[in-house]
Design goal:
The protein is mostly helical. The protein has a domain at 37-68. It is 72% helix and 0% strand. It has helices at 2-22, 37-65.
Amino acid sequence: MARALVLAILALVLVFVTPYVEAQAPAPAPAPASDGTSIDQGIAYLLMIVALVLTYLIHPLDASSSHFF
């Protein structure tokens, strides 16, 4: 009788454990692909920096001419 009880408990444990053993690992997420927006944003930042530098280079010339008026 004790043997039947151990066998029943073992069978019950296997019933609950087996689905988890057969489960597959989740598939890895695909690598993010660049759709070009980050490249466009980088070009936009570069152009803004160029415009800012040109503004500061040209501004002293513009400010010095206002002293003559």
